[in-house]
Amino acid sequence: EVRLVESGGGLVQAGGSLRLSCAASGFTFDAYAIGWLRQAPGKEREGVSCISRSGGSTYYADSVKGRFTISRDNAKKTVYLKMNRLNREDTAVYYCAATPVCDTDYLDDYWGQGTKVTVSS
Asked: Which pLDDT band holds residue 20 (cuts at 50, 70, 90)?
């Protein structure tokens, strides 16, 4: 069974930091790129970041570039998203998902359940 489980969300003050984790199981982890996406209340889901299978390539949305860092540990089958200098616009439910290659559609059955991040002013 394919599973992606996010953790690490919570309530943080503006300017603070959080690290999200995405633990995977049930598929060949290092054969897939992993992305982080988010959905804020009343808004469409948007891509935040993606990391290639080996971790050698990373991609970021302009809104988080310079503040967020994506990384992966293939031995632990886990992807991380370190988020610094958080602001209220970062408030959203964050999801991780798998895709063969970054910048292609994420696979339908390869999504986590999400973890909520709330940034207070």
From this structure: very high
